[in-house]
């Protein structure tokens, strides 16, 4: 049984779903190799949810028990008037946590306005501290701009500033020590994330995969990693801290050590679908019902349907089990 009632959204595995990730656009101003995996045309504007439609879906979700919302994409700061959306969402009764994931390229100019609009937390993706490698990985020369964005977020009082790094063998893995060292210099949380074969043939990408255990072993050579207790509303990262460091290190191993049994998330994609799991192509159409006059009650049932399709665990691996055809930019990471 799945339910969307006064107890909130609970799926068939009795997991309470309280977290909605919203991809506000499939467009991005970077072209990260592991994210935009094949040449793509951006969705025509008419096939992307309007900000009003996004707001409506989030409002309904919050009414059903969602308490945490993260805006993502594509690059959310590329979406015109995302600040207006943040401001409206931040006033929703019942929404306790509003955050955003960004590549940081447009953040220096927008950090203050985001803060003033009511954004509470921010994650910035950064896979290298080397400008030349940044160019290779993203196709853009914007490393310095991202760094300025990170500093602007810290200056505006976002706390903690989280930096997300996808670790890829033979690609950026030589950077992990330098990135981890940031946690000794700044109160930043550096979160290492396992590379996931999304939008590509998993077989062909296995050699890029580096399990989090290996990343952790390498960082332990820099000094002892002291465990940090996870709070109730914390995400799936296993948290640590170098002794006396102001910042933290986190490991997220969705492939080698999945955390499906405590997954509390669903996703709303830029093209108007609800997805019960990042690592499955299962989805429920919402753009159709939204645009054919669906009432709030009709749209509420789509959340229950999404929960009903949430598997007990994901089955994606690098041995050909499971294939995600949709690219990450469309789903929203
Ligand atoms: N543009 C924003 C950004 O760069 O953070 C938000 C969207 S991006 C898709 C969200 C996150 O997904 C980023 O941290 C990115 O590194 C991560 N990501 C993309 N493709 C991935 C993959 N194949 N495996 C693991 N993480 C991935």
- The main sheet orders its strands as 10-11-12-9-8-7-6-5-4-13-14-15
Just name the CATH architecture.
Answer: Alpha-Beta Barrel
And the CATH topology? TIM Barrel
The hetero molecules present are: S-adenosylmethionine
* Percent of sequence in beta strands: 15-25%
Shape verdict: globular
Structural Rg: 19 Å
Overall number of domains: 1
Would you mind describing this structure in some detail?
The two termini are 28 Å apart. The strands form two sheets. A twelve-stranded mixed β-sheet has the order 10-11-12-9-8-7-6-5-4-13-14-15. The mean pLDDT is 92. The protein has 333 residues and is an alpha/beta fold. 44% of the residues are buried. It is built from ten helices and 15 strands. The protein is 29% helix and 19% strand. The protein has a single domain (18-331), classed as Aldolase class I (TIM Barrel). Strand 14 (273-275) and strand 15 form a beta hairpin. The radius of gyration is 19 Å and the shape is globular. Residues 28, 34-35, 72-73, 75, 101-103, 125, 164, 166, 193, 195-196, 198, 328-329, 333 line the site of S-adenosylmethionine.
């Amino acid at each position: 049984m799945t339910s969307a009632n006064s107890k909130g959204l609970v799926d068939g595995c009795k997991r309470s779903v309280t977290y909605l990730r919203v991809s506000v656009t499939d467009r991005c101003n970077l072209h990260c190799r592991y994210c935009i995996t094949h040449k793509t045309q951006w969705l025509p504007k008419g096939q992307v949810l309007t900000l009003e439609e996004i707001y409506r879906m989030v409002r309904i979700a919050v009414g059903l028990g969602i308490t945490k919302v993260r805006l993502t994409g594509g690059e959310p700061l590329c979406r015109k008037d995302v600040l207006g959306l943040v401001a409206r969402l931040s006033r929703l009764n019942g929404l306790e946590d509003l955050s955003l994931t960004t590549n940081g390229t447009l953040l220096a100019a927008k950090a203050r306005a985001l803060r003033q609009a009511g954004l509470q937390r921010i994650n910035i993706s950064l896979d290298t501290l080397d400008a030349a490698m940044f160019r290779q990985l993203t196709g853009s020369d914007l490393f310095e701009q991202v760094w300025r964005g990170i500093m602007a977020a810290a200056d505006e009082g976002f706390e903690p500033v989280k930096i997300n790094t996808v670790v890829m063998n033979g690609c950026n893995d030589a950077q992990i020590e330098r990135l981890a060292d940031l946690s000794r210099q700044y109160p930043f949380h550096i979160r290492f994330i396992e590379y996931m074969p999304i939008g590509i043939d998993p077989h062909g990408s296995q050699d890029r995969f580096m399990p989090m255990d290996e990343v952790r072993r390498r960082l332990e050579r820099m000094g002892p990693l002291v465990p940090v207790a996870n709070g109730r509303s914390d995400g799936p990262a296993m948290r640590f801290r170098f002794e006396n460091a102001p910042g933290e290190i986190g490991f997220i191993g969705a492939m080698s050590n999945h955390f499906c049994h405590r997954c509390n998330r669903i996703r709303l994609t830029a093209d108007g679908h609800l997805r019960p799991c990042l690592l499955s192509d299962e989805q429920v159409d919402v753009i159709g019902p939204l645009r054919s006059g669906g009432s709030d009650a009709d749209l509420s049932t789509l959340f229950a349907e999404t929960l009903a399709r949430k598997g007990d665990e994901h089955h994606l691996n690098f041995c050909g089990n499971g294939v995600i055809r949709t690219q990450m930019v469309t789903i929203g990471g």
